[in-house]
Amino acid sequence: MLGALIIVFREVIEAGLIVGIVLAVTKGLAGSRLAIAMGLLAGVVGASLVAAFAGAIGEALAGVGQEIFNATILLIAVVMLTWHNVWMASHGRELAADVKRVGEGVRSGSQSIFALGVVCAVAVMREGSEVALFIYGLVAAGGSTAAELVIGSVLGLAAGIAVSALTYLGLVAIPQRRLFAATTGLISLLAAGLAAQAVLFLQQAGVLTMLSQTAWDTSAILSDTSLFGRVLHTLIGYSDQPSVLQVVAYCVTLAVIYVLTKTVGSRRTPAVKARRATAG
Amino acid sequence: MRMVSTAVLSLAFVIGVGAPLAVADDAARVSVTLKDHKFSPAEPTAPAGKPIIIDVSNLDSTPSEFESKTLRVEKVVPGGGKIAVQIRPLGPGRYRFFDDYHEDTTEGFLIVK
What we know:
The complex is a heterodimer.
Chain A (H helix, E strand, L loop, with lengths): L1 H24 L6 H21 L1 H6 L5 H33 L1 H10 L1 H32 L4 H27 L3 H29 L22 H10 L7 H36 L1
Chain B lengths: L1 H22 L4 E8 L2 E3 L4 E2 L5 E7 L5 E5 L4 E5 L4 E6 L5 E7 L7 E6 L1
Parallel strand pairs in B: 1-4, 3-9
Antiparallel strand pairs in B: 1-2, 4-7, 5-6, 5-8, 8-9
């Protein structure tokens, strides 16, 4: 029972942190709760499919299907998070500044909400498939009784959801004015961490072979398999033994998001204003 | 954004299909089997300074996840299934690997010299 609890909690916490952040980011946006619920549902269905076809995925693409699949869904999440931040940079301030414009902002924000729904789906799918495989293994091995497994898994899931709720409540306690800056920063770090993970899978697949030496080893100080290490791993992409290329990917992602939000944000705002002026 | 993402993803797929065939040539191969949640051999050896391919065969009926922090590997091995993992050229040393689903009982070391 304890085994099931720990494994389920460990996997759920990673998806839970991401969902908590997304919930806080989209608080008050019309349609966001539905989009996130759909994302979670799609994630659970996706996780079951990935677990059921784990063998076939692994054998695909000359034996590196699993790595390419993982890297691909991680990169999708990176693109969606980047897109969201760029959208927020060009519309977020108007949303907060003027109630009258909120209606328009929310309508044009539906794509951004969709993007974050996809992020939730991807997070749940990745972690959920591991939970499904693990539980299947326990059931097949027959070590624990079914009741013990169910209790352990439910407790693990509940603990994971509690972390998700704490993340959300912690973030929405930040004053509205600062929440925008805080979540933009968090999402950038989240995206950079996921990009570094995607690179790890591409290196594992032999797709990327350069800069594979270890950049640093801080496993003795803070192991990324410890609870705190795992939380940092999900939130800011902390890794105790990253490759140099992972560090490069992390920095490049941060730089790209920064430049995109600056340039797109400043370019779009005057255009929107001009359109409003002619319409009004 | 959509165009960029499509380009990135298709690139990943295209390289993904071609690359493993190219890497496999000069690599040293090491085989490990999993039975009753034990690695055998538990301490396989490999040469230093060459790419390494570890073939992992799972003779158990339950899935496991072959994982190593130092080798930077994380890959599911289905029950009764077989995977190959590619490792970068390594310096001499002992590199720990384990089954992520049974970490307490299932571990081994890759001895590189």
